[in-house]
Design brief:
104 residues; 62% helix; elongated
């Protein structure tokens, strides 16, 4: 693993470094989220989505366990899957904003 890359490989649109520092930096103008307001919105939405969807997952899981008939179980299972997907979106936004703050 080399520690340095030639100057011509910096900001060329191809990731040569494992930590992406040759492309995602101030000189290349390739920040993940361009403005501080975008970073803050991603953090706020990510935190909100994560917290509320964890709460909804716990509530729906308990509801699935108590479910008696198949129709109710099916509806609650689909609701549970929607909560999982929303939780993943919230985690993605948190990771996106956190990595953008960390590397830029």
């Amino acid at each position: 693993e080399t520690l340095y890359i030639p100057k011509v490989q910096k900001c060329n649109g191809r990731f040569d470094c494992l930590d992406l520092t040759d492309e995602c930096n101030d000189q290349c103008s390739k920040e993940l989220l361009g403005h501080i307001s975008q970073k803050m919105v991603a953090l706020i939405f990510g935190c909100t989505a994560t917290v509320f969807n964890v709460r909804a997952l716990i509530k729906n899981f308990c509801s699935i366990i108590k479910s008696k008939n198949i129709r109710s179980l099916t509806n609650k299972a689909f609701l549970f899957l929607i909560c999982v997907s929303d939780l993943l979106v919230g985690c993605y936004l948190l990771c996106l904003a956190s990595l953008d703050f960390l590397y830029n």
